[in-house]
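Our preliminary data section would be incomplete without showing what the modeling component actually yields. Below, a chain of 310 amino acids is followed by its predicted structure, encoded as tokens that our downstream tools consume directly.
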Amino acid sequence: MTLPRLLVTMGDVAGIGPEIIAKAWPSLAAHAIATVVGDPTRLPPGIPCVNPSQSNLSRVPVGVVTAEAGRAAYDWLCFAIDECLAGRADGIVTCPLHKEGLHAAGIDYPGHTEILADRTGTSAFAMLLYDDELPLAVAHVTLHRSLRSIFEHVTTATVLEKIRLLHDIVPRLLDRPARIGVAALNPHASDGGLFGNEEATIIRPAVEAALSEGISADGPIASDAIFLPHNRAKFDGVVAMYHDQGHIAMKLLGGRRAVNIAAGLPIVRTSVAHGTAYDIAGKGLADASSLVSAVRVAAKLAKSRLMAKP
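Predicted structure:
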């Protein structure tokens, strides 16, 4: 089978995106036919790059939030999405953008995942963190929201949706049916209602609904226990209730190995699991290993999707 065609979006040019692309590039050819969507003036000669954005980046300084960089990052992502929807590319790998840059450009999205969902017309989606060495995938019921606001968005329907998304994508990553653990929301899984009732009234009904659909699911399990080795061994996927509940555990366990996957979309998209790192941008210190992992995982998902086509 020929290698999949992947588009690597540069993200915010003021961050470490250009640097990690340059460092990772020699390793990417084994996994995909890759093209960068970004600013070619920020890359070494020989790296194929297209720039569909009209944003003027000539005066964008390194390590500073600007509307110009935010607009370009958005334009590049939209171009890559449209190319995949049109069948001219098989997947997208995104380098980090800066949310303040998006907002400075008047683009009212909290991040990549929400832009991808909106532009592809997707209502049921999730951001996964995936580590193929553990191996484990974590889906988040709520994502870029304040802690104060998450309670109105954790419902039986949203928890069940994330269980289903893991059930769908894990076999494409691991070539086996998914075993899914569902994290509790409250400390100690509420200790029988002492610390809230969301476990009994929201999360457990979602798990029971998943079981009735033939999905292998278990929970709610206290979030300080679900990632311990004896529990991790039982599961291929975990549903976390909010951003940090999943992210902190996965980044402690896997560090830079973690890959961000957008599940539920009609296209393949993975990403590095770190930010723009303005503090080290332009200093040659950035680690490109997460980008290499993201390309490898995107290539696997793209091949799986291509093989499934009639």
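The CA atoms of residues 184 and 220 lie 5 Å apart. The mean pLDDT is 95. Preliminary results of this kind motivate Aim 1 of the renewal.
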